[in-house]
Amino acid sequence: MEEIKAVILAAGKGTRMKSLKPKVLHEIFAKPLLGWVLDSVSDLPFKNESIAVIGHGAHEVEEYLNKNYKYVKSTVQKQQLGTGHAVSQAVPLLGDYRGNVLILCGDTPLLTTKTLTDLINFHNSEKSDLTVMTTIFDEPFGYGRIIRNSENEVLKIVEEKDATSAQKEIKEVNAGVYCVNWLKIKKAFSELKNNNSQGEYYLTDIIKWARGNNFKVSGYICPDNREIYGINSRQNLAIATKIMKDKKNDELMSQGVTLVDADTIYISPETQIGCDTIIFPNTYIEGKNIIAKNCKIGPMTRLRGNCEVGEGCKIGNFVELKNAKVAKNSNVCHLSYIGDAEIGSNVNIGAGTIFANYNSITKEKKKSKLHNGVSIGSNSVIVAPVEIKENAFIGALSCITKDVEKESLALSRSPQKEVKNWVKNKKEKI
Ligand code: UD1
Ligand code: CA
């Protein structure tokens, strides 16, 4: 099987974000931009390895990598002298590696594994030494422009800031993704110059370098320009979120899921939903989740990841689920929080039920388990860890802190008191 190594550029400051946080840690569907890029690489159908070039906010980015992507190697670019300089920081880590290297930016979260695979396959079938991914934008402002000759060969890339007004008219742009034969191209990184308007070592100059050294350069045009969308500003971040959401919504509708008002429904690309499930307006689903067929979700429901919802469930308005499994035909219809829980089938959770899963002193989260057929009365609190066995019945307004046996009734509210004629007596005294 082919092997590929990826270098992901993530050292830039992201000045245009006007943020204290490094740009690549800004999130879409609760996952940092860098995470989206790393995942699209790790899902490639080739043996792969990623190297992240970090710099601005290196400490924070490293912390994120250590927590979520332990397998990713990182190298620090102390001064951000440009994208070409950034790649040169990875040269020692790549050493004498003989395969293809994929170079991509940490700020293009919409790139899919399929497109990267197509790029690598194109590079190999063309027997290219350097392939740059391009796309066509009606409004190419801000991107590097692709300069081709009359034979349609890629000659060089000109950055917006260095472009002549004629070059600015070109609509084919640099996606910032490259596949290179490492052994042949690596020398370019010690020969790049910074004689341009920004005084930076541009990665884009490797094209001219490769041609000058008689290596084969190709351009792979990505048919879906939405994938190339790069994040440089908060406006870009909002647009990228919308692109990601619209693509997912479209895919789900094609698979037989009803979205009552797709404009207001946000579903992360990593969520699977079975057919004939209906999603009502203002539903927000982030992270990885599996929702089976024939469910009703929403309106105004939030799933925060790692949730499984079985066939025929109803998860209703103002309900939040996090790290929760709900087996088939169960209902959580109104105003509830279900966190760190396993819920059986045919369970009914009354309105306003809260799973108290978090101890703010110990910072620990604990799990609760409800077996099949359990019924929870409205406004109850289930204090984790507890286990409520088959068909047990919890009276409304109970605070459950101990396990409950099957078929039992558990009640923790105070008994109802009635004072006869209390109102009448009060009024008579006025
Ligand atoms: C870059 C390309 C441009 C392309 C666009 C696609 C260059 C010179 N320009 O422009 O042709 O159309 O991407 O999105 O390559 N970075 C570092 N170290 C640095 C500088 C940047 O790691 O010293 C990283 C940034 O964190 C970012 C990526 O490289 O993830 C791209 O840098 P950015 O400044 O966003 O480049 P663009 O102006 O978008
Ligand atoms: Ca960019």
Describe this structure in words.
The protein has 430 residues and is an alpha/beta fold. It folds into 2 domains: 3-228, Spore Coat Polysaccharide Biosynthesis Protein SpsA, Chain A, CATH 3.90.550; 234-410, UDP N-Acetylglucosamine Acyltransferase, domain 1 (3 Solenoid). The strands form 7 sheets. Strands 13, 14, 16, 17, 19, 20, 22, 24, 29 and 32 form a 10-stranded parallel β-sheet that branches. Strands 12-15-18-21-23-25-30-33-35 form a 9-stranded parallel β-sheet, with helices on one face. Strands 5-4-1-6-10-7-11 form a 7-stranded mixed β-sheet. The longest helix has 21 residues, at 234-254. The protein starts with a strand and ends with a helix. The mean pLDDT is 97. The structure holds uridine-diphosphate-N-acetylglucosamine and calcium ion. The site of uridine-diphosphate-N-acetylglucosamine has 30 residues, from strand 1, helix 3 and strand 10. Uridine-diphosphate-N-acetylglucosamine is lined by residues 9-12, 53, 55, 77, 80-83, 85-86, 105-108, 143-144, 157, 159, 173-176, 202-204, 230, 232.
